[in-house]
Amino acid sequence: MNDNIENDESTILKFVQDFFANYDKNRHILHTLFPEDGTFIVLGNRMSGHSAIQQAMLTMATTTHQLFSIDIVTLDMQLPDKVQMFQVLCAGDVEFGNDGQIHGFTATLLVYFLKPSILNVVSFSERCQWPKLS
């Protein structure tokens, strides 16, 4: 595998892990990881733009995500030099609030990477399953 691709994927992996950590613990800043016209969809509820994403984040139940799988796909698109797009598919468990019920979830992120260090989530969509049975 190409070293540049491995380095890019390592950077994206760290970014996605940090994204979920902020989603769970610092959600008041999560909107800053999106461009102004970015989209955030949770359980079918769509928010677009910084103010809508920030407002939604401050009113949603707290979350605790545990990631089990992160799959990174490089998108082959006509983009300016040093810009790359990635589709990131995630799966794991999430608990909403303190209800003690664990839900399986999947999430898809479209990540904009302007090398060497500017990353944004262009789009985020999360879906949950029914609570896991003990």
Description of the molecule:
- The protein has two helices and six strands.
- It has 134 residues and is an alpha+beta fold.
- β3 and β4 form a beta hairpin.
- The longest helix is centred in the first third of the chain and has 23 residues, at 3-25.
- The relative contact order is 0.19.
- The model has no long low-confidence stretch (mean pLDDT 88).
Ordered list of secondary-structure elements with their pairings:
Layout (H helix, E strand, L loop, with lengths): L2 H23 L13 E4 L2 E4 L1 H10 L3 E13 L7 E14 L5 E13 L3 E14 L3
Parallel strand pairs: 1-6
Antiparallel strand pairs: 1-2, 3-4, 4-5, 5-6
Please provide a brief summary of the model.
This protein is of the alpha+beta class and 134 residues long. 25% of the residues lie in helices and 46% in strands.
> Can you count the helices?
2
Class of secondary structure makeup: alpha+beta
Q: What value does the average pLDDT take?
A: 88
Distance between the termini: 41 Å
- Contiguous low-pLDDT stretches (5 residues minimum) are none
Looking at the structure, what is the overall shape? globular
Spatial extent as radius of gyration = 15 Å
Helix content: 10-25%
Q: What is the chain-wise order of helices and strands?
A: HEEHEEEE
Order of strands across the widest beta sheet? 2-1-6-5-4-3
Major β-sheet profile: 6 strands, mixed
Strand content: over 45%
Number of strands: 6
